[in-house]
Specification:
By secondary structure, the protein is α+β, with helices and mostly antiparallel strands. The protein is built from eight helices and eleven strands.
């Protein structure tokens, strides 16, 4: 069933019981319940004590290449049944499914019955800032801080390693227009470093132009953004690809921690 109205707020509260494992779907709900952005729908296997909740972008109104479908489940059998029977998923088209790594085997096993197989798989650490007071104090004297605006979409898209044309531009526009962002401006009021917030409420797209690296801009941006998200009542977290040792060490030094029992996975079908 699809959640509407007050059910979305109830679901947000219920997902708090399962943090950090429910973090991604919880993050989507936090933003969905507070700001207007690209449409997202939420479905559960039963109500009110759901065992599976799905966060699904509205493909009819927006592009879908960078719009992931997120799943949280606290019952493996219920997840298996949902993957097998739910009409929410269209296994004949492109789909990027985000879920706990421990569920990947179950999902792949069920989909093999349909003759559907994954094309790619990505695994990430989920780094959480549990206490914002743990983040180091960064001196911003003489640095011009601002938020990104729509005139910066092209630059952000160009520098993002996954940046493409229409699909990624649309996603970045949604992020800059509706969610918190932070950037450092040069003397010409142009961004030289920035960080954004994904629709899952995770910080991301942290980037500094090569000629401005080594100045501590990344540390400053993460510090400012973390405090801003915390002040607005949002969770403070990010994802780091398993092979990105440098970024993992950076966020760990900034006070972020992870639950070693959890890994976030994204599986791409029909990509």
């Amino acid at each position: 069933m699809e959640l509407i109205g007050e059910q979305l707020k109830v679901a947000e509260e219920q997902l708090k019981r399962f943090l950090p494992w429910s973090q991604r779907v919880y993050g989507y709900l936090v933003l969905r319940n507070r700001v207007t952005a690209d449409p997202v729908k939420f479905f559960v296997d039963q109500w009110p004590e759901f065992r599976v909740i799905i966060c699904h972008p509205d493909y009819e109104q927006t592009g879908n290449l960078f719009e992931d479908t997120m799943v949280f489940a606290n019952d493996e059998a219920a997840l298996r049944e949902t993957i097998r029977e739910s009409t929410v998923f269209n296994w004949t088209r492109y789909l990027c499914l985000g879920l706990d790594l421990c569920h990947v085997e179950t999902v792949n096993a069920v989909l093999s019955e349909r003759g559907v197989s994954a094309r790619q798989q990505y695994v990430c650490h989920m780094m959480i800032l549990e206490d914002v007071s743990n983040i180091p104090s960064i001196n911003s004297t003489g640095i011009s801080l601002s938020s990104l605006d729509e005139s910066h979409i092209g630059l952000v898209n160009q520098m993002w390693k996954f940046g493409k044309e229409e699909e990624s531009v649309r996603m970045i526009q949604n992020m800059i227009t509706n969610f918190p962002s932070c950037c450092i401006l040069d003397l010409n009021k142009q961004p030289v470093a920035w960080i954004l917030t994904y629709a899952s409420c995770a910080m991301g797209m942290l980037y500094t132009l090569p000629e401005h690296r080594g100045k501590g801009f990344a540390k400053l941006l993460v510090s400012v953004m973390a405090k801003r998200l915390h002040a607005q009542g949002y969770p403070v977290y990010c994802f780091i690809e398993e092979e990105n040792v440098v970024s993992y060490r950076f966020f760990k030094n900034m006070g972020f921690t992870e639950d070693p029992s959890y890994r976030a996975a994204w599986i791409v079908f029909n990509g």
